[in-house]
Design brief:
Blueprint (H helix, E strand, L loop, with lengths): L3 E6 L6 H11 L10 H9 L8 H4 L1 E6 L2 H6 L1 H17 L3 E5 L6
Parallel strand pairs: 1-2, 2-3
Length: about 100
């Protein structure tokens, strides 16, 4: 079975609200998603919210065009990286990759 890939495109995102909106949309999170760091961490680790077949095959989240957000909000970006890294560390079927390039 092929790993499921979800792309979170952060092009144009310059704040936490934008990041949360893009994550919610890309991951198809429910309307009750809290749009805060704890809610994002919980959602990433909750297999019930993953795309169909991702638990068995694995889930790869690719974060693209993150550099503008990282420059605009370095502290928030540091927190976002920590949330993604901890979720991947605690959820064996989850991988998160930061795409290089696409900085323009």
């Amino acid at each position: 079975m092929t790993e499921r890939v979800v792309t979170v495109d952060l092009a144009g995102v310059t704040d936490k609200a934008g990041l949360m909106d893009r994550c919610a949309r890309a991951l198809d999170l429910p309307e009750w998603f809290g749009r805060n760091w704890d809610a994002l961490a919980d959602s990433l680790g909750d297999h019930a919210l993953w795309p169909e077949g991702a638990v068995e095959a694995g889930l790869l989240i690719v974060v693209r065009h993150w550099q503008g957000y990282a420059r605009a909000r370095p502290e928030e970006w540091r927190t976002a990286r920590e949330v993604f890294a901890e979720a991947a560390d605690h959820t064996p079927a989850l991988s998160v990759a930061l795409a290089l390039g696409g900085t323009s």
